[in-house]
Amino acid sequence: MSLSIDAATREAPAIEPSRRRFLGACALGSAGALLLPTRAGAAAPATAARSQWPGYLQATVIDTLNGGPLDPQAEAEYAPLDARVLADARASGLTACNVTVSGVGSYLNDYALTMRAIAYWNGELARHADALRLVRTGADLADAKHSGRLGLIYGFQDATPFGEDLERFETFYGLGVRIYQLTYNRRNLIGDGCLEAANAGLSQFGRELIERLDAGRALIDLSHSGQRTALEAIAASRGPVTISHTGCTALVDRPRNKSDEELRLLAGRGGVAGIYLMPFLRKEGQPTAADLIRHIEHAINVCGEEHVSLGSDGIIPAIDLTPEYRKAFRAFVEERVKRGIAAPGESAEVVNFLPDLNQPDRFDRIALLLSRRGHRDARIEKILGGNFARLFTDVCG
Prior knowledge:
37% of the residues lie in helices and 9% in strands. The strands form 2 sheets. Strands 1, 2, 3, 4, 5 and 6 form a 6-stranded parallel β-sheet that branches. A 3-stranded parallel β-sheet has the order 7-8-9. Helix 1 (5-11) crosses helix 3 (110-127) and helix 7 (227-236) runs parallel beside helix 8 (260-268). It has 397 residues and is α/β, with parallel strands linked by helices. The model is unreliable at 1-48 (pLDDT under 50).
């Protein structure tokens, strides 16, 4: 029998250090930033200032993988959202984001952790109904945009919460989960993650899960997957799928990035790839916005402009670099290495976002950069969220 939310909340163990708190990591300063300047290492204040790109306020803007409006300095694992982070959410201009509610990498605890995370976000949605909205369908996306609230799309970053029980899909779907990533970095019962040298692809159980997700109108996510897992899953699914947060292997050969073969097959089946703001955009050193633009443009060339989006793999608020934060981030990286889930390119010396985009309105600034590079307004609107909104609506209703 499935655990209730209350029971899962009581039984879920503490996580240390918190992945949720460090999805954004910390700024190291930005030499030669192309955008409006901010003080190096400091979080820019939230503001409802004019948009950077003229079409931004009218666009549907979706971060296809984002931790949400979390406070990176919060001491508690499930700290209540406060006025500042909600102001940052409004200043971001995001219509919606895919917020991770699953545990990752542990069949022992991930079901309970998932139920705890869903309970947390349900509570925040209830407390801040004027600022947040749960998104289950395309109509909900449209309402989030119309009402000026941040839409939260519940998503998994691993299939471990299923355990060996596909009947749990009914529970997860009923609680609002619409996006299901099949693997994290390592192998699970579904298939191989991107760190598995064997590259064994999907299991029979994985194919059964894909059938269940297709039948239930859920969106399959192939981020973190091994190459064979991705190619086989795209072929096996009856509908289009997403790779919500990735980079391009042709530019930087890291396990977390996707090959042109994977990107072409994804696009050919109608899917959408989200380019992240992560260390894997560059082989060595700290990536910047210029690296992000290179990966976006390569993805456009491979997939076509209808199949590219942005999935930051961060959080909405900007990050203040402090000695305490640097220490905690180092502990976070060390814990991931210890657990065997850290990917090549992760380092305590390279933060998990782009320093010259360390502002809540980073998507607006990305749009301006693309415009300055000569990309048409219609293309920019698609990349900001139009492509993913279409995919989400087609698959989830």
